Amino acid sequence: MIRILSILALVSLVVACAGGAQRALIDERRACLGNGQGAIEACTRIIARDVPRDVLIEAYINRGNARVDTGDIDGALADMQAVIDLDPDDPLAYFNRGDAYLKLDKPERAIAEFSRSIELDPNYAPSYSMRGSVYSLVDKHALALADHDRALSLEPKDAVMLYNRALSLFFAQDYERALTDLDAALRVRASYGVARELRAEVLRILQQQKAGNGG
Known about the structure:
By secondary structure, this protein is an all-alpha fold. It has 2 domains: 34-122, Alpha Horseshoe (Serine Threonine Protein Phosphatase 5, Tetratricopeptide repeat), CATH 1.25.40.10; 139-215, Tetratricopeptide repeat domain (Serine Threonine Protein Phosphatase 5, Tetratricopeptide repeat), CATH 1.25.40. 82% of the residues lie in helices and 0% in strands. α1 crosses α2 (36-48), α2 (36-48) packs antiparallel against α3 and α3 packs parallel to α5. The termini are far apart.
């Protein structure tokens, strides 16, 4: 009986320790989802542990995002490569790598990454929206608007994607349609500051055009 009790006590202790380790991992994963250096450190601790493959991929992706936020683009690219090494068909890794290349002012590389993300997941709207924005930067306005239209067909009430299309329309000097998209974005998110600023600029240009036409 004493031996049985001892074994039961040992099993209880192992279960308690396992439960504590699991809770610690949950806390680390929550911290890894944050921003800045704290998130980077939490993700790094997870990566150093013996964790399931999906948790490891999640940690690399989140650390890459946090590194982008802190300006460590090279570190972010290394993290996205680690994800691709673990899962070459992960569309989010290519999407995030496209964002990193965009921040490095490498639009053609960014377009290639967003295109690969779209190949892997044709229904992931942000990839179309971001690729459309990059097409605008390189003056490929027809391609840009086609991508934005596709993104908004998938997520018609996404304020960021409405803003992105409005910005592309602005670059294409289609101010009336840009205004329509900006109004729609602000109906979704009234506090969207950059949309409100762009809307003011669009209205200023439209008023100038009207005055120039004698309106």
